[in-house]
Design goal:
By secondary structure, the protein is of the alpha/beta class. It contains 11 helices and 11 strands. The chain folds into 2 domains: 28-116, 3-Layer(aba) Sandwich (Rossmann fold), CATH 3.40.50.10860; 139-261, NAD(P)-binding Rossmann-like Domain (Rossmann fold, 3-Layer(aba) Sandwich), CATH 3.40.50.720. It has helices spanning 6-28, 43-59, 74-85, 105-110, 123-130, 139-150, 170-179, 194-198, 244-247, 261-277, 280-284, and strands at residues 2-3, 33-39, 62-68, 92-95, 159-163, 183-187, 203-206, 224-227, 231-232, 238-239, 253-254. It starts with a strand and ends with a helix. The structure holds 5,10-Methenyltetrahydrofolate. 5,10-Methenyltetrahydrofolate (GUE) is lined by residues 47-48, 51, 94-97, 119, 139, 230, 238, 257-259, 262-263, 265-266.
Length: 286
């Protein structure tokens, strides 16, 4: 079994980004900038945001973390985003999800300038991605695609089952795979007999948030399994949606949790920030 080591690959990508930042600083005399908005005091969100901040710092990207209490109004959040849209030094804007219940996520995401949308969550970028046009790709599916590329895992003509149909992972993942000419099945919690789908899959990608849902008897010999799940058990242990210990005997390739897809998400966010910085002149010309 080949371990798909996201920690090692993300370190390599971060080095690429560092080099790209140096080029931009030298050639364009600008420093790429990322703004992260964190609403409320969810512990997991704070941890992710801190990782993003550190990754930016290491890569030479200017970053600001704008913390707001969960009591803010939607209007206040929209005003903050508007200010960031108009700040030329901020190439990327990321609003950490989930947002408090009284704030409408769609309204917030649609208020971000699509040319600064480094999460790729704005419907403009989602639509362009589905149509296989140049766009910001959401970091997690983008990171999974980079893992396939790195390990020369061919997607064309493959049977791929995506478990989970969320807007941030399952749906964009399926679109990228369709564009790569895979035969894609998207399953969800209503799927009857999940195993009947997964046992025919060359590749299974799971992102549902249920510990150990995907077991060895559900996949064929030599399957590739990508585990996007991150679940914190009561004993504090971090586990994915796949039963790693059982699957490692059966898979040709498997991602660990932690150290798999998670670190890739952060690395691809940095890549998207570079892309946004390269759009700065185009943005400001308007
Ligand atoms: N606007 C927005 N964009 C996001 O990209 C976004 C978000 N909101 N909300 C939450 C999810 C989750 N997410 C992760 C990023 C890194 C790890 C990561 O690095 N995980 C480490 C372990 C982290 C730990 O120890 O807790 C690993 O898997 O090895 C995980 C999860 C980004 N998200």
């Amino acid at each position: 079994m080949v371990l798909l080591d996201g920690k090692a690959l993300s370190a390599k990508i971060k080095e690429e980004v560092k080099f790209e930042v140096e080029q931009i600083v030298k050639d364009k005399k600008i420093t790429p900038g990322l703004a992260v908005i964190l609403v409320g005091d969810d512990a997991a969100s704070a941890t992710y945001v801190a990782s993003k901040e550190k990754a930016c710092k290491d890569a030479g990207i200017y970053s600001v973390v704008h913390k707001m209490p969960s009591s803010i109004t939607e209007q206040e959040l929209l005003e903050t985003i508007n200010m960031m849209n108009n700040n030329p030094k901020l190439d990327g804007i990321l609003v950490q999800l989930p947002l408090p219940k009284h704030i409408d996520t769609t309204t917030v995401l649609e208020s971000i300038n699509p040319l600064k949308d480094v999460d790729g969550f704005h419907p403009y970028n989602v639509g362009r991605m589905v149509s296989n046009l140049d766009s910001f790709l959401s970091a997690t599916p983008f990171g999974v695609m980079r893992m396939f590329e790195e390990h020369k895992i061919d997607l064309s003509g493959k049977n791929i089952v995506v478990i989970g149909s969320s807007d941030i992972v399952g749906k964009p993942m399926a679109s990228l795979l369709i564009n790569a000419k895979a035969t894609v099945t998207v399953c969800n919690s209503r799927t009857k007999d999940l195993k009947s789908h997964t046992k025919n899959a060359d590749i299974v990608i799971i992102a549902v948030g249920v510990p150990y849902l995907l077991k060895a008897d559900m996949v064929k010999d030599g399957a590739v399994v990508i585990d996007v799940g991150i679940n914190r058990l009561e004993n504090g242990k971090l586990v994915g949606d796949a039963d790693f210990e059982g699957l490692k005997e059966k898979c040709s390739h498997l991602t660990p949790v932690p150290g798999g897809v998670g670190p890739m998400t952060i690395a691809m966010l940095l890549k998207n920030t570079i892309k946004a910085a390269n759009l700065r002149e185009k943005r400001e010309a308007k």
